[in-house]
Structures are given as structure tokens and as C-alpha cells.
Amino acid sequence: MTSTPGTAPARRVPRPRADALRNRERIVTAAREMFVEFGSQVPYDEVARRAGVGNATLYRNFPERADLVHEVVLSLMGRVIEVAERAAEEQGDSFAALRRFVHGAAEERVGALCPMLEGTFDKDHPDLIAERDRLEEAVRGLVDRAQRAGRLRADVGVGDLMVALSQLTRPLPGTGCASLDQFAHRHLRIFLDGLEAPARSELPGKAATLEDLRRDSCPS
Question: pTM to 2 decimals?
């Protein structure tokens, strides 16, 4: 990089070392697993132990718990977006794509998002808003495609899908009821059977949007 006479050369911003990036990724992966299992208040030293790093490394990357929760939420949303996009790309049948997304998102424990969004977490951080918009676009694409094909009943919306997915992938972290996970995919299949067109009954109220869920907060 060159500089004009009489001016100081532009300062290069050093790139993070590969091992530093790997450590950060290990921390986020360990935290995501432990938040799902035990809740977001799991001790920092336990996260560091599972990640295989020292406490100093964990605090250097994430000085505050809110920083770590923020990164875990972004990571989880990114993984769910990838599930939706791959389902859309790889499944020719529109309802099969929707079914694949629902079961794939359940594997990521998307229901754990709501508890992580409590407390001092900044729900309106630009990074989160951008990822939330990507998620909504990906899921809406699956829903719209299935409805255009006449495979998905017309009186449900993206919000209906996500709230049911959130509720059916519980129990909540830290409840000690992990054995109930074995029923999640069974119950999701029952739910999906109820989404297929033609509808056998008329739903009360109106189709829920993600904006409805944001306005009313996470369902309990």
C-alpha cells in the first residue's frame, strides 16, 4: 500500500489468526449446545471447558454474557436459514421441502431461541435484524411455494409454522426432560399432516405473521 508525500501510511488492520478464529468458533459451538441443554445462564467456565479453551480466551472473545448470547443466536439462526435454503434447493416437491425444513429446524433446537432472547439481550441489533429478515425470507419462500402448488392449506402463515415449531421442539433448556426429545419428530409429523391441503376444518382467527410474533413476544 502506498502513501502520498507528507502523509502517514495507511494502517493495516491485522486479520485474526486462524487459531483465534477456530477458538472463537469452538466457543460458540460449545455455548450453543450448552444453552440448549441448560439455558443461557450456564457458567462461563463450563462453556470454556467444553470448548477446550481457557477462561481467558473465552473472556477475551466475549467479555459480557450478552456478547456470547448474541453470537449464539446469530449462529443458530444462520444454521436454521441454511436448513431452509437447502430444503428449497434440493427438494423438488414443495411440501417435502417444507417437511424437511421443519424436521431440520427441530434438530437445531430452534425452540431454544425464545429463552435466549430474554434479559438484557438486544433484540434490535442490526446483525440480528438482518439475520431475522433472511430467516423470514427463506421460510416464507417455502410456505409460498407450497401454497402456490396447492399442497399447503391457504389459511396458515409463516408465524403459525414457527410458533408450532418452537412449541413442539421443547422442553425448555434446563428442565431435565431431554428424554421427551424422542417425541418431537413424531409430533411434528402429526402437525405437518394437519397443514396439508385440502384443509379438513376452518381455523379460527387469521394466519400469523412473524411480525405478530415479534409484537407479542415469544409464545410460552
Answer: 0.79
